[in-house]
């Protein structure tokens, strides 16, 4: 049986950020995940559809754990301004960070870029053991330790187990922590879009009768990641349109703010739901990230990946 101070179930952004944040603390940390990325292969040429809007607090955390320089050396874009308007009224707001003394408001970063940097950092740390690919088979909760059995029957002991294993957390369910769930009755359509006019590193969002459309500026000045929140029926209709038809509807809905639009990726849709764990901790267990709370929304396709507040842990 291998003994650790902390076993983290889930090698996503939150789980790995926590593991990297604990390096140098004297704690022995293990990360268990079913997948191990191929870090030897280059980053795909086309931007990924999963992106995150990283705010200043998360930027500081990523600096603190020593991965920020690696991230910014890859594909990132600092956005300097925001524009939000309502098509059905005169309501609008627009501002730039420089007006308030900020060099930028945040960064739009592909999740794959963040994940690669965290994996590389974790692999280099002598305090972190990566148990991948592997999954949890069983957990027994003791007074002073938790006892974890993996799918290959390896056994681990830990003073604390952290559930960072997804919105449908097996650990949360195994610990019988109830969940509040609600359906927003909207779906999000995501895609990468090329625009005739440069985005000028401004994040834009328009409210219209059927939903909300957001353009998140990517590293290429003519590429944006869109998140379009609409009814399930409208999402299905938009997905079925030809590229030419979709481009016309998209540009019109966006009031031609960036000129003509051209979809450059597949179009994916997913339901927008909310989940909230009734408790964030149990005997020798702590929940993190989307395990404790999850709300998929236009601001989260990405959105802030629950980094803030993960600089301290007591075992």
From TrEMBL:
<dbReference type="InterPro" id="IPR002938">
    <property type="entry name" value="FAD-bd"/>
</dbReference>
<keyword id="KW-0963">Cytoplasm</keyword>
<dbReference type="GO" id="GO:0006744">
    <property type="term" value="P:ubiquinone biosynthetic process"/>
</dbReference>
<dbReference type="GO" id="GO:0071949">
    <property type="term" value="F:FAD binding"/>
</dbReference>
<protein>
    <submittedName>
        <fullName>2-octaprenyl-3-methyl-6-methoxy-1,4-benzoquinol hydroxylase</fullName>
        <ecNumber>1.14.13.-</ecNumber>
    </submittedName>
</protein>
<keyword id="KW-0285">Flavoprotein</keyword>
<dbReference type="InterPro" id="IPR010971">
    <property type="entry name" value="UbiH/COQ6"/>
</dbReference>
<comment type="pathway">
    <text>Cofactor biosynthesis; ubiquinone biosynthesis.</text>
</comment>
<comment type="similarity">
    <text>Belongs to the UbiH/COQ6 family.</text>
</comment>
<dbReference type="InterPro" id="IPR036188">
    <property type="entry name" value="FAD/NAD-bd_sf"/>
</dbReference>
<keyword id="KW-0503">Monooxygenase</keyword>
<dbReference type="Pfam" id="PF01494">
    <property type="entry name" value="FAD_binding_3"/>
</dbReference>
<dbReference type="GO" id="GO:0019168">
    <property type="term" value="F:2-polyprenylphenol 6-hydroxylase activity"/>
</dbReference>
<dbReference type="InterPro" id="IPR051205">
    <property type="entry name" value="UbiH/COQ6_monooxygenase"/>
</dbReference>
<feature type="domain" description="FAD-binding">
    <location>
        <begin position="4"/>
        <end position="289"/>
    </location>
</feature>
<dbReference type="GO" id="GO:0005737">
    <property type="term" value="C:cytoplasm"/>
</dbReference>
<keyword id="KW-0560">Oxidoreductase</keyword>
<keyword id="KW-0831">Ubiquinone biosynthesis</keyword>
<keyword id="KW-0274">FAD</keyword>
<dbReference type="GO" id="GO:0110142">
    <property type="term" value="C:ubiquinone biosynthesis complex"/>
</dbReference>
